[in-house]
């Protein structure tokens, strides 16, 4: 923490213009207070430990730790007197470079600036630069490989191959680990006059470029450092690769070497051709890039819209950023990984700053105050859900809000810097921010290094001329060129993704249409193969009658709850299943339909049996609209989606609205609704037992009167409760009689009505409204 945040503190020390009392000024003051709370807690409870444990209010110590020293000394002197770099400890080459070396270099740049201005830091004699050079030399043994790709770990005292090093047996490293050295190592070479650092970083980039897949121009995620063969061939822009692409672009900005820009542009064209599926960014196989290899995304890709801003490609940057913002509105923070349907894949949130970083870049590029509101929401959620008495704690699971006893150094180094700069005009800063480039940990390096310091020799590999150059291949973005006379261009792009996750659509009662409750006629037999996690079903045909009452208005802001109400004997309207609507497709009509379950992520086998029937489809593996198109192509006339996650139900999980993928869905003309797993199991069990079941789909508040069945959840078991709805007497409504069906139901059981409009979901706030 300490070596990484020295430059942040010195930037604060530079001073800024007084705040004006405006809303942005108040937010700046709040952000400084948050940084003081986080960093002050580290200094109070953890220094000189590696990290603060914000729940335990103590430091996380690794290896031999230096003496604390006097906390009233200047931060620069404290780093020089208390930080040792010769510890017998094995560290990550990648993390030590971007956090510790980058922090020392950024702090040196700020200290040198203050010294040149006079007044402050006149005692400074480049001590931080000397520390950075020492650390650089301690990292160099990692590059002692035949390929030039660095070992992933190094012992700061004993190097790699020494018998005491306890490392050097590793054979693989990630692409980002080998490809994210050039900024810090080149800056160290230019500032110290020793070219060896930049030469090693350039060599590693040469190898990665040479080993790209020549047909797709993509790289994999993990590579063997000895034989240069790819170990993991997944290609994306998230974890394992992310900062490799970032450093190609930023190396050009920092060093002015066209080879880096040419490489980046070729990679970028491949990314936009194969990985980018706006607003999604999906991993593909580097040798077969037309097929996505997984149906989830990790939160590290949130940096990519910011990189696209540097590239000048604003439209996809706005699209992906808006998708990420909608995910944060649904889950409060970005989960560590989330599915293409924007559900939690890994629930952890480590207070990562990449989303704030992209928000900053987009605001500076567009000037759209919308991004100030996004930044404000980040500040508010950090204070509401992550702040603890001894700092800010990572979130163990965004679904429960439980905390984890960690506060990583990147939270201090990046998050508050980007938030502060977001709400600060350039004229109020003590430095010209355009004179610097941010490293991947948001440390500032001066772009003047390309002209004021002697360059190292160029890279060994040549780069073919890009086949697809565009307006911004060699220039920075211009709003007037991109969107002439259109100040609302960003909003126009965002509006297509406003309800991407389904959160936030209001319900307004609609007039009831006529309801057809005629009995179903017989149907030809066919096979019904249901997945086990929904229910076990026998062969046979099951007929479902669906009557629609589905509608939505584009300006409304909350999801409209719907229900699946079984109305044929023996149910007679008593079984009501809470369902979510779809934003695409037509209203359901009064027709007879059959039902069959499908995964539906590829062409449907046995499509002839599906034609003219309603299909049951499992959620997962691909997006709803993909399933919808395959089922429509197969001849289905309606779809009921059932959640593939066993045990999910409408009581514990807020409803959401199924949405498209950002492109036009006018070609989809079928009706759709969604059931969670438990509700879906009730439906499929009814179909299995009774074969012919009439089902009514309509807004929840318009369900038919008469006896209903409610769900009662106790100790993860599902019970049914019958509620007779009596006619109102002249003196007012009577309290309904309640009884229990099924096995043991105790007096202490908590009853949660699945068909009540005032369900447990209704008090979860706007982010989780049904």
From TrEMBL:
Biased composition (Low complexity): 731-742
EC top class named in words: hydrolase
Active site: 95, 242, 336, 354
UniProtKB keywords: Calcium, Endoplasmic reticulum, Glycoprotein, Glycosidase, Hydrolase, Metal-binding, Unfolded protein response
Ranges of biased composition (kind: Polar residues): 743-762
Region (Disordered): 719-770
Subcellular location: Endoplasmic reticulum
Residues binding Ca(2+), per UniProt: 440
Boundaries of every PA domain copy: 597-681
MF term (GO), any: mannosyl-oligosaccharide 1,2-alpha-mannosidase activity
Domain of life: Eukaryota
EC number of this enzyme: 3.2.1.-
Cofactor needs: Ca(2+)
Gene3D superfamilies per record: 1.50.10.10, 3.50.30.30
Cellular-component GO terms for this entry: endoplasmic reticulum quality control compartment; membrane
Chief location of this protein within or outside the cell: endoplasmic reticulum
GO biological process terms on file: carbohydrate metabolic process; endoplasmic reticulum mannose trimming; response to unfolded protein
PANTHER family (alphabetical): ALPHA-1,2-MANNOSIDASE, ER DEGRADATION-ENHANCING ALPHA-MANNOSIDASE-LIKE PROTEIN 2
Similarity comment text for this entry: Belongs to the glycosyl hydrolase 47 family.
Name used for this protein in its record: alpha-1,2-Mannosidase
